[in-house]
């Protein structure tokens, strides 16, 4: 199990009520399960539309259970952005 930071952006930040929080998980799927447990409701709905970066690398279409998290890593939670 690795420990790191989850950073929320835009609508995810608003729904979580925080800009970041720690994770303790081996995979992205485990980290997101913890997020859903801590923040039931709106954030759970927002996560369905989000994309994710792990240490700056896009997850894309990979299964979240296959994405390993590193000790001291960062998960960026990126909801769809308007404009740009």
UniProtKB/TrEMBL annotation:
<dbReference type="InterPro" id="IPR016155">
    <property type="entry name" value="Mopterin_synth/thiamin_S_b"/>
</dbReference>
<protein>
    <submittedName>
        <fullName>Molybdopterin converting factor small subunit</fullName>
    </submittedName>
</protein>
<dbReference type="InterPro" id="IPR012675">
    <property type="entry name" value="Beta-grasp_dom_sf"/>
</dbReference>
<dbReference type="InterPro" id="IPR003749">
    <property type="entry name" value="ThiS/MoaD-like"/>
</dbReference>
<dbReference type="Pfam" id="PF02597">
    <property type="entry name" value="ThiS"/>
</dbReference>
């Amino acid at each position: 199990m690795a420990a790191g930071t989850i950073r929320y952006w835009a609508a995810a930040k608003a729904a979580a009520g925080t800009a970041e929080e720690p994770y303790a998980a081996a995979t992205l799927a485990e980290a997101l399960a913890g997020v859903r447990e801590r923040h039931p409701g709106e954030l759970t709905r927002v996560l369905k539309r989000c994309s994710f970066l792990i240490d700056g690398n896009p997850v894309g279409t990979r299964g979240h259970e296959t994405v390993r998290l590193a000790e001291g890593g960062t998960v960026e939670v990126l909801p769809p952005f308007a404009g740009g």
